[in-house]
Amino acid sequence: MVLVHVVPSSRRPVSRLETVIEAERYARLRTTADGFRRRFAGRTIWNVNSTAVGGGVAEMLQGLVGYVEDLGIAIRWLVIHGDADFFSITKRLHNAVHGHGDPAGLDAAAAHHYTHVLTANAVELLDHVRPGDIALLHDPQTAGLAAPLAEAGATVVWRCHIGADRQTGVTEAAWEFLRPFLSAAHGWVFSRRAYAPDWLDPGRVWVVPPSIDPFSTKNADLDADTVRTVLATIGVLDVPPAGPPARFGRRDGTVGEVVRPAAVVADGLPGPDDELVVQVSRWDRLKDMTGVMRGFADHVADHRPRYLALVGPAVTNVADDPEGATVYADCLLQWRALPPAARARTLLVTLPLDDTDENATMVNALQRHASVVTQKSLAEGFGLTVAEAMWKGRPVVGSAVGGITDQIAAGTGVLLDDPTDLAAFGATVRHLLDHPEERARLGAAAHDYVRANFVGDLHLLRYAEVFGALAPVGPAAR
Questions:
Q1: Which family does the record claim for this protein (predicted)?
Q2: How confident is the model at residue 302 (pLDDT cuts 50, 70, 90)?
Q3: Do residues 361 and 322 make contact, with C-beta atoms less than 8 angstroms apart?
């Protein structure tokens, strides 16, 4: 069985970014890339993570890898494999690093199995990675690869996309589990400074916020007719699909069509002009989909015909998230227990992942059609769905946790001080639904803020700084 798979990448024309970031930033990106290409000639950057689909890390890599290729820099993307026990361990680590869950299962037996799986993956990784290359390892699933790759002569950077602003006994137990694996890395990258444990050398810790690609399938412009056609096709709007299927541009430059339906659980569907509140995320307890449902049912649903769509991926398609099916099942049980009037205004939507570009178009249409987008997470490393919705000019109601606070600046959306206060959540959503002018003002400011702070050129410039500081000067060994 092959454990390590190469993810095919599609070169993305970096010149398109100039229309978004303007001339000065674009020139800086080009100049930095020219210097990087000369310094690192003959070396390859290897991104390593645990899934090619589902979640913000995979989506970011699709864009960033494509732009770096277009800049003439050697870059590749590899996905490792693990068994069910491995991903159960890493899911517990994921939750514990966020400060949630019981870390008791992170014992010597868990460490042994974690090491066993990653040692097997490392053997195959070393068929690709060569001395002098740069290995960018993403999240707890890959931490155990740092030592074998560093011993093979690669410069190893561990990139953590999750974390908690406050350290607790739960987070400390998770970091103690990871500590012996991370010590071999040459540097560590976090989305926020507060996420880094204090035992790491601060001189080798960098902060690199995530980013969106404005030209990805998920973020590309869609006109109103296309949005309506997509939502009718997937079964979210109470209108029949009119005309031919909606078309979208794929990452490889070809054109696709939205033809697959979503799996929609609903007693009623919104019409095309009804107000719709949307939350898009994995089926993950920390995203608090059930809390969003209860807050909407108790404080929003009885105010005029308004609808809520809780949207996530098909639960069988995200390989590294074993809790997805359980969380979705819990949402389904709680949906069935809602009062009939609230249940008729609430939709559970699982989107197929058979075609990732088609899936991205579905998400794009849902976010663009939404009157309000929510991200009421109990914990969040960054929450890329926030920046995605803001880019589309949507007002976002998000929890004041983790990286959401970096995205929703004053006047660009609404932050909830306490994500468990469902009455406050409902009142905020209801207020925005009642005030369309305020929604439009917040949405316009949100778009501008994302353009200024969370587009991929800034992400790449920060990575260039990290690699330039850590990688030795000299020819790569081949």
A1: Belongs to the glycosyltransferase group 1 family. Glycosyltransferase 4 subfamily.
A2: confident
A3: no
